[in-house]
Design goal:
The chain is of the alpha/beta class and 293 residues long. It is built from ten helices and nine strands. The protein has a five-stranded parallel sheet, with helices on both faces. A four-stranded parallel sheet has the order 7-6-8-9, sandwiched between helices. The termini are far apart. Helix content is 40%, strand content 16%. The chain folds into two domains: 152 residues, Glucose-6-phosphate isomerase like protein, domain 1 (Rossmann fold, 3-Layer(aba) Sandwich); 118 residues, Rossmann fold, CATH 3.40.50.10490.
Amino acid sequence: MTHVEDELTSQPECWSRAAAQAAEHAPALPAPGERVAVVGCGTSYFMAQAIAALRETAGQGETDAFAASEFPHGRAYDRVVALSRSGTTTEVLDLLGRLKGTTRTTAVTADPAAPVMSLADEPVVLDHADERSVVQTRFATTALTLLRAHLGLHTEAVVEDARTALEAPLPEGLVDCAQFTFLGRGWTVGLAHEAGLKMREAALAWTEAYPAMEYRHGPISITTRGTATWMLGPAPDGLARQVRDTGGLWIEGTLDPLAELVRVQRLAVAVAAARGLDPDRPRHLTRSVVLEP
């Protein structure tokens, strides 16, 4: 079993533990009414998108998401939340250093000894969700679960859906598809982008991701027999029929969207195996991006 497989299968337990710790970490997490920016790089940026949409939809306050390198320093925030599994990512450290003493910051990381611990005003450590793999799975989804629980949006039904996602077989013919498109709405747009990234990292697959309503404004033109379109969350009316009319494979998201992402992680490993690739050794990637000065 690869590191990726081992880590992605541990997610139900990681999520339950993070949810149980939400109250303990509450003082370091955004309070209702705060104007918040959530930042990260790669997978963490897509989790930031999901968190921002969840928080704002829940009426907790204006919330934006940015890649750490693209943070708009001309805007004022009550708090900036940085997601960084390794706690060593160059762009995240640079941003927290620049904000120190001017904007309250929280860092969610997996390593209690990482440099991010001294730069953030309030670090949150999820060391039980740390990973050996380059390709992120459980840390990202556990960080998102912590924030969902903090917002009162997590239930044990999500954990049960994750177990179902790990046990149920993948749809027939999916592994053999030549192209994959992932769709989301609201907070699941970030999950769709992350699903596409997982497939590219682990399996070198041709993937795209869009807000579901945008998919019909051009991207559906690539959909045909031998391609797959996967919806994370409820689909807009009529979209499934339109995809099936193209000859493409339609995958309906029937589980909690975060559990659907677990299914995609499994697909990434399966496609990598079918193509003779090792998902623990993704091409050109390292566990943390540390830029030379």
